Every structure is written in structure tokens, then in C-alpha cells.
Fold this protein.
Amino acid sequence: MLTEAENRFFTEVSAGTPMGEYLRRHWHPIAPIAELDERSTKPVRLLGEDLVLYRDRSGTYGLIDRLCPHRRVDLSYGIPEEDGLRCMYHGWMFDETGQCVEQPFEETVHPDGRFKEKVKVTAYPVEPKAGLLWAYLGPAPAPLVPNWEPFTHNDGFVDVCITVLPCNWFQAQENSIDPVHVEWLHAYWAQQLSVDTIFGKPPSHIKIGADAFDYGMIYRRVVQGSSEEDENWLKGRVCLFPYALFIGHTYACHFEWRVPIDDENTLSVMWFLNRVAPGHEPPKQPSIPYWYGEVYDEDGRFRTSHVVNQDIVAWAGQGRIADRTKETLGESDRGVIMLRRMLKEQAALVAEGKDPMCVVRDPVANESLHLPVHDFFGTIAVGPGAGNTAHVPFQHGEPEEAIAAINDVIATWKDAKPAS
């Protein structure tokens, strides 16, 4: 149970709040690159700030205040030019630093005027990586965008899923350090719903644990029929700071980032990699495809058919902002308690002017940041080594062409032997 003030500590993300300042020390995935290839401007709300993401005609990305400082027009309707974004109302143009670089009528009336030099809007750095656009809202100098080892692989099929969640980010992230929920939400409840998930028969958890590591936390589990010699205990799963889950195997992995839009909404960004078996040619991907995950069914109820949809029911079912003053934690919540303690410690480091964990500044180390991966799923799920031959999407809405491509990749593992 938390006090009201403690709950606000974790859930408030605007500038000047402890968690808002902590989160601003990290890079945030905000959009697929391919989405800006289709349309060059996109309204973005991030950490409570209303912004516009754009790509100008030279290929430069910018993230600036959404409202033009002239007459407060929405710049997400603006015109990308060769070197900036032009307001469609009176033609003022801004570059990626937020500097006003053109004021057509003012410059006509006062050819030698310098008024535009006095006009500048909020602007944040943007970098492309792994098919995503990343934004940094913190103080200079900006750290490096983490180059996780899966980003360096070029031997598989990658796709991205984007979903807006109607709840605070912390509800989703606490789920990343809660192994026991799999037994009930994704296995037992899924069976009651008669839906097909990757988890099969509900596993009975015997033991759970959690440890800190360089980039966050690792949670561990022992289920009935397994032991501490199994990978679910030896390697565990990754709760990646500040707000991600990483699940990795030699043949497939995925990240789930829970990016705070504001205090009551979250952008779920999922990045999937399915790798071909050694010796097989990977599919050609000129760009990384993306899709928007579906949250509601035709009746306006939350969908329950897929793993992440089931998670969303649990997260959003707590309300826009969970009232943790009324919670009653138990033995299964050891990881949640540890997560809260560690985030307080990380926020304290930021308040002292120090970098929190998972902020990367060493370019040599950032060539490939290792995360633990399993050789095969083990006892609570299936994979190529367990005879699985068909892709089961994590969330409703994955396009048929993506599913077909992933099934082609899975087929390359038909005769492969997983490491023992």
C-alpha cells in the first residue's frame, strides 16, 4: 500500500515532478520510421507535452512545440519544406532546433529585420534506430540511444505494434516484474475464455525472485515440473528501465515499451524480431512494417483474445491511475515492491545531478548492449524446439502479411535443434 503522495510520485510524469525528471533522462520511442515515410507530420503527446514530429524534405527529423508561436495554429498540419516545417497559416517556418528561420511577410516589409531570430519554440532531439524514431526531452548533453543487441541482427523479420493505452504507464510497467500473473491471466483465464495463447496448461509457480542488473531488473521463476537449473531461473526475464519488458530467445525476441503520454495515457510500442534458423536466407525488408494494435471489440469492451490484450484488461481495469492507497500486496508482489524501491533510488540520483541506470554514454559499449536470452521457451510456453509451427500474435490486429512472413521464418526451424 502506498500513500497518496507516494502514488503521485510514480504516476506524475510532467516536467518538474520526480518521475517526470527521471524519465526525461532517457530516450523514448515515439513512432515508426515507416509512418513518417507515409505522412511527414504526426501529432505527438509525450510526458504531458504537446508536440509535432516531422520529417522535412531533406530527411531531417524534428520534434517541436505543436502550436505555432505566431497565432497558435496546430503545426501537425504544417508543410514540410527542404529545411524545416512551415506553418500553413502565415508561412512562418521552423527548423529542428525550434528556431524560426522564415517569416515571409515580415521579411517583405522589413528586408533587413531580425525579428525571426527572436522567435524560437521548444524542440527536442530525434534519432532513428531499429525502425523507430526516438526522442530525448532531457538536459544536454543527450546520452546515446541504447543499441540493444537484437537491433544489430539482420537475420530475421521485424515488425512494430503501436497501441494507445487508456491508463498510466506505471500500471503496465509493474506487470513487467510480476511473473505469477502469467499463470492466471494468460493461462488459466485464457482457458476459461477458450482462446489460443502461447502458454498452454497453467503452470503452478513454486518460487519467484528478482535481482537488479545493469539495465534494470531480472525476474526469475520456478514452476511445477522445472527447477532452478532451468533458464527461467538461471537467466530469467528482463524488466528494462525505465519502462520496458524484454523477452528473448535465440530464435525470437521482443521489446514492450510503455511510453508515458501523460498521467492517464500510455503509448505501447512493441518491437518484434523473428530470426531464421542458421543457414537460411532472411526475408528482405526495405523498411520495418508497423501496425496499430486493437484494444476494443465491436461492443466497446476490451478485447481478451491475445496475450497483450489480456494484459491491457488488467492494466486499464485498474482505472486511468491506479489507487494504490487501497491495494493489498502479497508474496507474488516481491518484484513490484523492489521496482518501486529502485525507481525511487533512480529518481534520487537524477535529483543529485547524476545519470540513472540504463543511460548509455560510452559509444564502444553501445555498439551492442547484451540482454539475456533463452535457448528455448522451457516449460510454460512453446517455440520451434517444442514443435510449434505457427505464429501466435501477441496482440490483436497483426496484419495477415506479417503473420505469413513470420510463419515462413518459423518454418526454417522445422529441423533445427535448440541448444540444450
User: Anything to note?
Assistant: The CA atoms of residues 239 and 245 lie 5 Å apart.
